[in-house]
Amino acid sequence: MAVKGFFKIFTSLRLTVVCLAVGILLVFFGTVAQVNEGLYDAQHRWFRSFFVWWSPAGANWKIPMFPGGYLVGTVLLVNLIAAHINRFQLSWKKLGIHIIHGGIILLLAGQLATDMLSKEMQMSFAEGESRNYSVDARASELVFMTDGSSPDQDKVVAVPDRLMKVGREIRHPELPVTVRVKEWFVNSDVRQRAPMVDTNPPPASAGHGPNVTLIPFPETKKMDERNLPAAIVELTGPQGSLGTWLLQAKLRDQEVPVGDKTWRMAFRFEREYHPFTVRLEKTTHEIYRGTGSPGRPDTAIPKKFQSRVRIDNPQRRESREVDIYMNNPLRYEGLTFFQYQMGQDEMEQNRGTSTLQVVRNPSWITPYAGCVLVGGGMLVQFLSHLIGFIRKRRRS
Fold first, then answer.
1. Residues 6+ apart with CB under 8 A from 260
2. Whole-number Cα distances in Å, 129 to 67, 122, 242, 252, 353
3. What is the pLDDT of residue 92?
4. pLDDT per residue over 77-130, tens digit each?
5. 69-86 and 13-37 helices, crossing angle to 10°
6. Where are the domains of the chain?
7. Which of 3, 111, 247, 364 could staple 267 via S-S, CB 3.0–4.6 A?
8. SS3 of the chain: helix, strand, coil, percent, to 5
9. CA angle, 4 then 6 then 8, to 5°
10. Helix (H), strand (E) counts: the chain
11. What is the DSSP secondary structure assignment for residue 220, as one 8-state letter?
12. What's the pLDDT score for residue 41?
């Protein structure tokens, strides 16, 4: 009886109506929250979660205040599957309905898979430069590197920023030192210290720390801006403390002597390496004349943004050139390269730069397949009723 009652709840039409109503409210509140929380934070808090959590200011605890997108979508998917199984009738008259239900199930499952498996990255370079990696502009990593005989033989140990909590000690057999996080800044900038202006103590005692000034900024929520996190860490090697070090993406690599080796330490946006290289051969940057603000070429309306790139893949023995522009992305090795931004090199104004949006989405085909199934199911259902109606007319 308990199992039947539980199954009856998930096959109920009322549960479907409740899920749809909660989904409408979730979309409304999540959209409004983007004003203060920003697009990405609002997406993760409201839609890419099972619960929307709330915590009072200054408290270290939180409580669920609303169902999240994952919970609503999962319950709606289970409800749809259970109701379909409960009312399933194997007949030609119901074939269209079955196809439509299959398409809707595929759409819901595909959206869940997209949210959980997809990843957006960027690849930026100037004309003549090559890249074999993409970066995640919303995640950083602390890396330690030793020089090998070639760049391909460098030993790299990376620590993602999600592990860098204030007061935490980070240890690993591959790490040459113990990293203790003393301070963390979600957004910042750095500049060279001025002798007569900067009378306060330097942010760190080793590396670039004594020569620069750290300027903390509040977290930005704007789509056209990105946060530059910073951290002050204490490094401890076999010989003891190596002092405090300032980490910030704008700073060059710092040398850390550990025993008889010298490691290079860098704080950068998180990288994902690829088994192929992309070389930017040429950029085409055209805008509509008369648009944009005076002195602000970046506000002009783009007419044609196009990047000609060369793909070199030693494993496939492949080398070819491809044009990437609006509505013409490059799909390669499970990645999709979109034209995102263009500009000019700060050092060489006559050399163009390009930023490609790199997207990995293993379930990209599911929305198309789901829509085809829903449309096909509606067509089959319509034709079955039409044929039945015509037959009745002929009999009469």
1. none
2. 47, 15, 36, 19, 9
3. 76
4. 888 888 878 776 777 778 888 898 889 889 988 888 888 888 999 999 999 999
5. 160
6. 2-118+365-395, 120-131+273-360, 137-270
7. 247
8. 35, 40, 30
9. 65
10. 6, 18
11. P
12. 84
